[in-house]
Amino acid sequence: MAEVHIPMDRPDYLWPLFAGLETLDGVGPKTAKHYKALGVETPKDLILTLPVGGVDRTRSDSIRDVPLPGMATVSVVIGRHRPPVSRGRPYRIEVEDAKTSFQLVFFHGKSDYLSRILPTGARRVVSGKVELFDGVAQMPHPDHILSPDEAGDIPAFEPIYPLAAGLTQKGLRRAMTAALAEVPNLGEWIDLPLLDQRGWPVWHDAIAMAHAPKGPHDLAASALARERLAFDELFAHQLTLALARASNRKGKGRVTQGNGRLRQKVLESLPFKPTGAQMRAIDEIATDMATPARMNRLLQGDVGAGKTLVALMALLVAVEAGGQGVMMAPTTILAGQHYANLKPLAEAAGVVIEMLSGQDKGAERRAKLAALKRGDIQILVGTHAVFVEDVAFADLRLAIVDEQHRFGVRQRIKLGQKGQGADVLVMTATPIPRTLSLAQYGDMDVSVLDEKPPGRTPVATALVSTARMDEVIDHLRKAVAEGRQAYWVCPLVEESESFDATAAEERAKLLRAAFGEGVVGLVHGQLPPDQKTAAMADFASGKTRVLVATTVIEVGVDVPNASIMVIEQAEIFGLAQLHQLRGRVGRGAAASTCLLMYRPPLGETAKRRLMVLRDTEDGFVIAEEDLAIRGAGDVIGTAQSGLPQFRIADLETQTGLMALAQSAARTLLVRDPKLIGPQGQSARILLILLEQEKAIRLISAG
Ligand code: ADP
Ligand code: MG
Description:
- The structure is a single chain.
- The chain is built from 26 helices and 22 strands.
- The protein is α/β, with parallel strands linked by helices.
- The strands form four sheets. A seven-stranded parallel beta sheet has the order 12-13-11-14-15-10-16, with helices on both faces. The protein has a six-stranded parallel beta sheet with strand order 17-22-21-18-20-19, sandwiched between helices. It has a five-stranded mixed β-barrel with strand order 3-4-5-7-6.
- The longest helix is centred in the middle third of the chain and has 26 residues, at 224-249.
- The two termini are 15 Å apart.
- The model is unreliable at 636-641 (pLDDT under 50).
- The protein binds adenosine-5'-diphosphate and magnesium ion.
């Protein structure tokens, strides 16, 4: 059968929308530059810039009929002109509407211009804000001055657009009118039943309606026209992710199926039973690995949900199938921690596991690499950096990336391309709200560990002012005497690591003075790797009882005996980060405490955030709150996350739309993988329109 090839070129009828802005009425090269600040470079960008507000310009007979001060749109007869009597005074024009007289007021008004547009005796429709000044009603600088036959040009509800320096509402509206005239009718890319069910207008009408709101309700994100346009954006994004997913899975994967023998051994050696969620995730992963498509799966689970066991089981599937697995972590500390956790279990199953880090040098490193290449090492643990270098495997079948939010979509796709057909499992310990998870990981399949292992004691969380530092230290002294261990976290105060290191060193000094030299350990980002490792090891073995740290301990570190977490200046941390930090305690049987120290006075928002943390330990609840308080861009740093910027869609309020867009995109690709049917071709137009370059490349590549 011949390949159907539909080029992804921009069709002729879209060209006007992609022309320079100067092609629009009233836009010159200089104004065009000003539009750039709005992210508007083409007429297409302009029509996707929706009104942010509106002005009521309902016609009245008289300003008497509207509450003052307020907007009025009235027909008037122009009376006497009163040029300023002295410099600095305004130019006044008496006017009379159906019931009363008032004044139009112009500062720096030019007499000949005003005489021309407002000749005495003429009738005009004026619209603007009317206020009382010294008992006299006046309308300073009307927004509109029109002759009676032009008066119909003012809509009863006039849209207000976002502006940038150098732009005016008037100029923008004029350009918008010109741009809207270029909007073609496009074929429908939304499933008709969905369109019907939601009551959405077709695209062309939606654009027109969004720019002609009839009242404030038409400006709401829930207005049907706006909702459809938001959906289009999300749909285009999800289609891109779905195409990436399809291309990633297609043909490049391998069937990796184990006999369960090693997994069985590990399960038998465990002192506990896997949770239902763990079993489900293990099953999903094993099933996925057994298909010829390449796995690209996300394992999402809160701190302590037990991701390590799931990861190990996946690695063992690879080993059972005669292959190898690799697990990568963002830092050496984390890689070391994973290694320490995995090693006893892997060895219980008789599997050879090794760690490769930047500290491995010379002959030792060469020996490890050779063993890896021969297949003598079955599971390798290391940092991302280690893997990205040229490490050769005999038969790599699974790459696990412990992402912890340090990777975005783009880097991840790149990494996936490196793995020569290996299945990819990404782990994240930061629960993120469903919309964001769909936006960020929409190209992946997802397993969620939404159940914690039993027997955890909740972490008692309290807010304490720094003014009570002495009490905190006293309390800690008693706890240490009882054999408990504590983390003491110093915040990232500045963007400079050395500065933060100094703060941590100062704190360690104070605590050593209080508890004794050997009791307090210190770890921060400025320390050489071997010192970090040593500090962590001393704390893990119980040699030190208090570990002063910067946020390097944020993720993954597991010392079950540590039951106290003190966080200084908790108010400047992100909620997700605080949740991660708190997750370092409450891992053993002992009752745990988390003290969130803050510097008073605490602002409203900061207080609300810390209270959320005090009141719940559910990472998903915390994440939703975080989203509500801070907004999407801040929850995951937008630039680094690869989270797209949407012009219309609002991730905070339109939560359901993203899931809908994902299922619509995946459904379309199942029905029409090459996007060659009528709906598929329309979807191509949407991708071109919304400049989904990646999708366009994927489709063009066939
Ligand atoms: P995560 O990586 O998701 O934060 P871990 O895999 O490090 O969590 O597990 C946290 C702790 O819980 C570990 O000490 C682990 O041995 C233990 N654990 C894991 N699964 C279970 C289970 N099903 N029942 C009891 N304890 C478990
Ligand atoms: Mg872990």
